Amino acid sequence: MKICITSKSNEPDSDIEPRFGRAPYFIIADTENGKLEAIENPAAGATGGAGIQAAQEVAKMQADVLITGNVGPNAYEVLSTAGIEVVTTTGVSVKEAIEQYNKGTLEKVSGPTARTHAGMGRGQGRGGRK
């Protein structure tokens, strides 16, 4: 089984990245051989549609499970259509998330956990309205 975990860096001790589409890295854990592989998320810097593009990348990796903080409706639809189980958690490292999943303490979600465009920017816009 392949588990894909969104990560803030390319290290397994890194914290989970809560924004699926904008996650800098995906860590792929292969439960059959115990190997971990870090893959840079090519959609992280996309100007639009990052969630959909990231979901397509995860599907190409043939992941069975995605562990992330939140996933929006468009990305969830792509993942669901590809048969990828979506599980959420926050405040833990990639390694801890894998352990929690293997113990069965993480719960599969049955729909999106974030609204459309939730990962856009970081709320630091200066606003243009006067």
UniProtKB/TrEMBL annotation:
Coiled-coil residue spans: none
InterPro entries the UniProt entry points to: Di-Nase_FeMo-co_biosynth (IPR003731), DiNase_FeMo-co_biosyn_sf (IPR036105), MTH1175_dom (IPR033913)
Region named Disordered: 106-130
Domain Dinitrogenase iron-molybdenum cofactor biosynthesis: 13-102
CDD domains assigned to the protein according to its UniProt record, in alphabetical order: MTH1175
Skewed-composition ranges (Gly residues): 120-130
Descriptive protein name: Dinitrogenase iron-molybdenum cofactor biosynthesis protein
